[in-house]
Design goal:
single chain, 594 residues, alpha/beta, ABC transporter transmembrane region fold, Rossmann fold, 2 domains, 4-stranded antiparallel sheet, 10% strand, elongated
Amino acid sequence: MLSGKKKSAQSLAVLRAYSKAAFRYPGLLIAAIIAVLVIEASAVIAPLYLKQFVNTLASTNAVAEHPWTLYMILGMYGLVMLVAWAGQRVRLFSVGRLEARSMEDLYNSSFDYLLGHSHDFFISNFTGTLTRRVTRFARSFESVTDNILMNLLPAFVFLVGVVIVLSQRSLWLGMGLLIVTILFILLQIKMVLWILPLRTRRTEEDSRMTGALSDAVLNQSTVTAFAAAPFERSYFASVAESWRSATSKAMDGYTFIYGILGLFSTFIEVMILGATAYLWQRGVVTIGDFVLVQVYILALLNQVWGIGRNMRQLHDAFSEATEMLDILELPHGIRDAIHASDLQVPKGGIAFDRVTFAYHDSRNVLENFMLTIEPHEKVALVGSSGAGKTTVAKLLLRLYDLTSGAIKIDGQNIADVTQESLRRAIAFVPQEPMLFHRTLMENIRYGRQEATDDEVIEAAKQAHCHEFIRHYPDGYETLVGERGVKLSGGERQRVAIARAILKDAPILVLDEATSSLDSESERLIQDALLKLMEGKTVIAIAHRLSTVMMMDRLIVMERGAVVLSGTHDELLAHGSNLYQKLWEIQAGGFLRED
């Protein structure tokens, strides 16, 4: 549990972030505040005309002597109410525009900063949690703004106005109303603090139930395969039972709170009206003042009654916003150097110079790793699992920073260039490509967003995607589903290769680009890869040795170091070595050239 001091600091941080967003539109903010003042001033002034109207009715002589007086009073009352109506329209318009624009800014800034976090950050956090935090951070602005500009500020302004008006009639009446209202507010605050743990518990159980539901739905195929539906039903039922228990306790708490507050509000109304009656008996106030006080009490209690609800909503909004604020205040794990320049790749030579790297302070995956790749050279990294092959690719893309050493491209340290320019210069085809839930055309075009449809289709043909795409009813406009689940593994891989072909970067990294293909598809892809690799510097991470036959040089890795280097024939002729053992293990599974 967070301490009260830390919670206050977090709430202030949220307020600062939201204030900064709102102050970007000062015209709308000022218009909303002025509208609030106008509305509440009208709410204070209008009952004064009702009071005058009643007093005039009570005076027979006044009506007889001035018959138009009643209509003039009603006219002024109507005019004040018309001003209040106009103020309401201005407030709704300005607050609505302010919230929409500020929330758009918060969405964009949160999304932009979130994407800037490192690869390690994203693999350490749930995707659903991150997306929910961005959404809640933006939407909480609406809740905070509504509660301040539509509820709390109006209640405060109205209370001040009522106390001033009543104090002019009787200081005791005005001060008495102020004191009991403050006591009512303090009671609500006390009640809110009492019920917060119950609300927190209910929220936790709600999140737990949502997580259980999401987990089961995402793993539906596993549930079916293991005939585990009865187990999942039982597990979800236990989670739902915990949620019901927490919800019931929270609801019982609300019942108790509303009962206490209802009694206190009745006490306030009776007490103030009783005091007004006493003052009337003493000739201090008039019959019209009874109407004035009654209208004020009903309006004030209606506004003050909602303060407890507003505080709960603000607490929830601050809590939800704080989750995203933690991410916004977390420094990016991988950052550009202060004076980083764009990477220039005239040739494409790559050098790993005494590179040492470890994940999360564990043992070194690479230690004093040395490797030089000449421009346009095609190199395959081979070795047993855990040798560090994929780590080499991740470091080249600067998904992680080195522990020591340097990686250079055409003599430029990748730590001194912008990450964007570095990754523009590298086309990466991962072992398990992830696609957007967009059309095939959009997914392939992701390699080069400005490419024409004809260029996309040509890349698809070279990657042998066109063969299966043309069989879909919607062709290139076919949606591929979340992460590309509507496509087979081989089809996703070919789309990823088409994307790389379209990008046409000077450096190409293949993380076993044919691993998801059957033998027939692999033969097709080999041709596409040969075309793709022309004129490029290539690093191919080979888990299946059948992919290394087209490479200029093979780099055999073991425990994060280069142990052998040479062509396929040279390594086999070397005698007993690690490469020969790997080759013998996979001898039955590679593609032989005809």
